[in-house]
Amino acid sequence: MNRRDKGMEIRRAVLGDAHVDRAEAAKTDLDTPFQDLITEAAWGTVWASDGISLRERSMLTLALLAATGNFDEIPMHIRATARTGASKQDVLETFQHVAIYAGVPRANHALKLAKATYAEMEAEP
């Protein structure tokens, strides 16, 4: 299996078919090369590696997003925890590390986003 196909397989496993289908349908000529890069590099190389578990990758991704202030993707990756096996306790521990090593305000905002996303997920049928 080539890197793009493996990336798409992992991406669907982590984010879910509905999310990936929406993203694929929204692609244009402008962002197709960028989406291909993400699929091959992030999903087909990094996430596809068997060096650590999807649960651990999920926690690392959330920590890095929070620590760098890239909050827009946190809800998507909170939703992914339902498929990666990262528990709410794992997420809390992750953001506590962020608080100590990257700053309380970033961890606090990330936790706020996590709480709201979990509430949305629990309200869904």
How would you briefly describe this protein structure?
With 125 residues, the chain is mainly alpha-helical.
Describe the structure.
With 125 residues, the protein is mainly alpha-helical. It contains seven helices and no strands. The chain is 78% helix and 0% strand. The radius of gyration is 15 Å and the shape is globular. The model has no long low-confidence stretch (mean pLDDT 97).
**Average pLDDT, all residues:** 97
Helicity range = over 70%
SSE arrangement, N to C? HHHHHHH
Q: Total helix count?
A: 7
Which secondary structure elements does this structure contain, and how are they paired or packed?
Blueprint: H1 3-15, H2 17-25, H3 32-46, H4 54-67, H5 74-84, H6 88-102, H7 104-123
Helix pairs in contact: 1-2, 1-3, 4-5, 4-6, 5-7, 6-7
List keywords for this structure.
125 residues; single chain; 7 helices; mainly alpha
